[in-house]
């Protein structure tokens, strides 16, 4: 099953004139339950690829670990859908801490709506890295070219870590959050610096996506999709440049335009 994220479905298609039997490719939906030190922590519905990166990125995003060096072992039972994680220093996990929300001003100027663990792990981005509008379009086009699984199924999201002119690596998943967690897991495993990097993304820019980006540490997020109001409020607070609706030579800059070379004099 490893790295297989699409399967075949038998389908009857109507082409405007006739009904025809055919076979389509569809994204695989796969649940994996994560145990941390023999205690059930979470079940993620995902694409069954790059599961180690997903588990590491998810645990780091949730604040369970800061880096892979804290992990003693990860054993993944792909057939049954379980991941068993043992930490070098065992900790008691208070699930209430990871499910309760709070109002906090710890990450910026305004009072926002966070999970407790987000308030502890989200960080303000101070990167001075800049990108041009031309490079935004070029990177989005490259992401589309890389997204073979989306082209074949229409059912996955993609997230890529990039320089201004190239995609370094790209991950796909049925869940947009999972794609970012896989990206984060890869970054942590290989100790990749991100202050001078850009994340290019296919999904909606929600508050959860912005919080994940703040944990990853990149200051620029480029997406072909729309933002939410809370997502942009958090992006303003956390120092993240959000560029959305990157389509057909048009885009919207929603926050921190100083990182866009042509717009760095414009206040938002």
Commentary on this structure:
The chain is of the alpha+beta class. The chain has a domain at 133-263: Cytidine Deaminase, domain 2 (3-Layer(aba) Sandwich), CATH 3.40.140. It contains 8 helices and 14 strands. Helix 6 (176-189) runs parallel beside helix 7.
Secondary-structure map with pairings?
Layout: E1 6-14, E2 19-27, E3 30-36, E4 39-46, H1 51-61, E5 71-77, E6 82-87, H2 95-99, E7 101-104, E8 112-115, H3 116-121, H4 133-146, H5 148-153, E9 157-162, E10 167-173, H6 176-189, E11 198-201, H7 207-216, E12 220-223, H8 229-238, E13 241-247, E14 250-253
Parallel strand pairs: 3-6, 11-12, 12-13
Antiparallel strand pairs: 1-2, 3-4, 5-6, 7-8, 9-10, 9-11, 13-14
Helix pairs in contact: 1-6, 6-7, 7-8
